[in-house]
Design a protein that fits this description.
Layout: H1 11-22, H2 37-46, H3 57-68, E1 77-78, E2 82-83, H4 85-97, H5 99-102, H6 115-130, E3 134-135, H7 136-145, H8 156-173, E4 176-180, E5 183-188, E6 192-199, E7 206-211, H9 212-220, E8 224-234, H10 239-250, E9 277-288, H11 291-299, E10 303-306, E11 320-324, H12 325-331, E12 333-338, E13 352-360, E14 363-373, H13 376-385, E15 390-395, E16 401-406
Parallel strand pairs: 6-8
Antiparallel strand pairs: 1-2, 3-9, 4-5, 5-6, 7-11, 8-9, 9-12, 10-11, 13-14, 13-15, 15-16
Helix pairs in contact: 1-2, 1-4, 1-8, 2-3, 3-4, 6-8, 7-8
Length: about 425
């Protein structure tokens, strides 16, 4: 059974998904968040359509729509020869049903041997994308210009992460969104993945996930992973929240009345923080591969039940799950990268992305799947001076392994000392660093 069409959340996502259909190369938006004509030209060529490519964008869009059976009307384009999100999505939906596409479906650009290999590919795309300080006004304006569905949300940082990440993943790796039950997950390759953002400023060590039924179904159908971007929220005295309200009113969005608790007519409804700045600090990728892993996550409280409050209309919401970071990092974490003060991967005279492991009685155990270090060898020496045996593997820009640094006086292949675990770990005394 073919999957129902999933509308794009923005024009940026729409052009990425259209180009992925015909493998015509990455697509972005031009100045003013306008789609480039190459999106339509490449779609026409990819579907082998007999249309006149010299037509204006609205006319070319209409010609393609006529060829592939899509509805085309005044809502599909606007002034300045701009195709709207409605128009792009109508072409995308019809193109996905087109014979040459439907026969093979929408696929990824590569195959992956394991969820960990897939997670490393995802991380390689996302790390350069999210670095730096995010200015709320700039980000909201960028989302609004691209007709992003969620541009007006109070908690803008999480939506901005989805806005920039999903199109880039599609451009670089293929894939796209997936609907399970009635929940749309952001991305699917071999496994299904969902993008989450977490503010470290609130002190909570948990992230709210998705509908419980959809989570269990996705796990049963190939595994489910969560890509969590954590960061520091910078709040002000309410000025940014007031600016957001003015933007919504200017766009014709009227505020919905908030529901108070029964009998409570005095307490003001809770307001979202006024946060003009978000500073990404870390990306972590978690994965639940099958029912056994899911049950273990519930038993260890890495996953917890989460009952949502009622909607603003008073209707009940379906229960979700929560991810407990401290426990999930022990059993569900595939890879993580710390982003604070990290220069682009592979640049000279900047930090090096490394995998850090510690020696245990069962062998090498990963402490950090991705950590940026200025001096990997010195870092290992300092750990040894504190009484720990460590191994640090430098990672190249493509995440392949580079140089390896091991604690002094310990062979790189320490298992030659004792062939089978549990290993006998040589004692190392703490010393004062030079």
């Amino acid at each position: 059974m073919s999957q129902r069409f999933i509308p794009s959340a923005s024009k940026l996502e729409a052009v990425a998904r259209i180009s992925n259909l015909t493998r015509s190369g990455p697509e972005t938006l031009g100045p003013g968040s306008k789609e480039r004509k190459s999106v339509l030209v490449n779609l026409s060529r990819g579907l082998s359509l007999a249309v006149d490519e010299s037509l204006s964008k609205p006319e070319l869009g209409e010609a393609i729509a006529r060829e592939i059976g899509a509805t085309w009307d005044r809502s599909c384009w606007s002034a300045g020869s701009t195709i709207t999100l409605v128009g792009l999505d109508r072409l995308l939906e019809a193109a996905e049903r087109h014979g040459s596409i439907a026969a093979v479906g929408v696929s990824s650009h590569a195959t992956y041997s394991s969820p960990r290999a897939e997670a490393e590919a995802l991380m390689n795309v996302l790390v350069p994308l999210v670095r730096g300080e995010w200015d709320g006004r700039t980000c909201v304006n960028q989302m609004r210009e691209a007709e992003f569905t969620h541009w007006a949300q109070d908690k803008w940082a999480g939506w901005y992460f989805e806005f920039i990440a999903l199109p880039e993943l599609i451009n670089r790796l293929g894939g796209g969104p997936r609907k399970v039950v009635n929940t749309t997950f952001d991305y699917v390759l071999r496994s299904t993945w969902d993008l989450k953002a977490h503010s470290e400023s609130g002190g909570a060590a948990e992230a709210i996930l998705n509908d419980q039924e959809a989570v269990r179904r996705a796990i049963d159908e190939g595994g489910l992973g969560f890509i969590v971007l954590s960061g520091r929220r910078v709040d002000d005295g309410g000025e940014f929240r007031a600016w957001q309200r003015r933007q919504r009113l200017a766009a014709g969005k009227k505020p919905k009345p908030r529901r108070r608790a029964a009998g409570d007519e005095t307490t003001e409804p809770r307001q979202a923080p006024s946060s003009p700045t978000f500073v990404p600090t870390r990306i972590e990728i978690f994965h639940i591969g099958d029912e056994n892993a899911f049950n273990h996550a519930l038993q260890t409280r890495a996953l917890k039940q989460y009952k949502q409050g009622r909607q603003s209309s008073g209707e009940k919401r379906k229960p979700k799950y929560k991810l407990n970071f401290s426990t999930a990092r022990e059993s569900l974490l595939l890879t993580s990268v710390t982003l604070d003060h990290v220069a682009p991967i592979g640049t000279k005279n900047g930090p090096t992305l490394c995998r850090l492991e510690y020696l245990t009685t069962n062998g090498w155990a990963v402490g950090h799947a991705g950590i940026a270090l200025l001096h990997p060898a010195r870092y290992v020496e300092r750990l040894t001076a504190r009484g720990k045996f460590a191994r640090c593997t430098e990672l190249n820009p493509d995440l392949s392994e580079g140089r390896v640094h091991v604690s002094p006086n310990l062979p790189a292949d320490f298992s030659i000392l004792v062939p089978d675990p549990p290993y006998r770990i040589p004692r190392v005394g703490k010393t004062r660093p030079a």
